[in-house]
Fold this protein.
Amino acid sequence: MGSKKVTKIGVLTSGGDAPGMNAAIRAVVRTGNYYGLEVFGIMRGYSGMIDDEINLMTSRSVANIIQRGGTILKTARSKEFFEPEGRKLAYNNLTKRGINGLVIIGGDGSFKGAQKFSNEFDIPCIGLPGTIDKDIAGSDFTIGFDTAVNTAIEAIDKIRDTADAHDRLFIVEVMGRDAGYIALHSGIATGAENILIPETETDIEALIASLSEQEKRRKLVNLVVVAEGDKFGATEIASIIKKRLPNADTRVCILGHIQRGGSPSCLDRLIASRMGFHAVECLMNGTHNVMVGILNNQLHYTPLDLAIKAKQKISEDWLRIVKILAS
Ligand code: F6P
């Protein structure tokens, strides 16, 4: 709990952008203004804090953005902020404006920066989970995941159409450097026969056995959804399959950054608005250095250091469902 009254706050987006970040910025600015706080937008994440790219925002600055993907504040991954000199420069730029509270919208890397900063300087930080990867504990939702997974589903459904027309096996790679949530959810929702994620050990022999068994059953269309963070990755898996199952007409599709863009879904706009609103209330009521999350539809505050350490676990239930429904 902090003691000093927060009067001027800064908001920034950091790490990979995620649809709904704009809705969160809007909520922070408008809630802050409603309570009589000055709100400053910090450009390009921590880089803008160091380079002094900090501008006063008003309710009008965030008009007409709730429906837009990306982030009007832009984003970056700052190496300099992980050096003490970088953080000192950033601190000076905040204090010369009297900014005495921060809202950081980003993923675990962004929270690591916030945690270091608030340990060193007397500036309370509130984190909002903004990442398409959904790899943060303490919240059922992260801003951007729902939109990203729906983008993936739309694309995979289209791939299934052409796979069906040609009786092909498609290996589709979705985003998620360390986390398999996009792969798991989009794979289940599109009826993928196999889903490969970094949280479970990929067993190539088991994959080949499952595909050849399906070949025997004349199941000609096959979708394998692979998370980017899988230890083999889509391209290598496809080349193994081509060698081991030469009769399978195999193609690869890497969805890539289209999953990060686009207009946020209703769910992402709602959670971003709710989290942004409560982030400001946290700064005002002295609940400091936490991540605002939503668990079982209730607001949930996780200390930043815990949000960094703990990852969301993939439930065993989903893994069983994948196996049974793909048969
Ligand atoms: O934001 C998370 C994420 O999209 C990961 O899923 C992906 O591995 C990474 O960002 C890609 O980052 P970049 O846009 O810097 O290549």
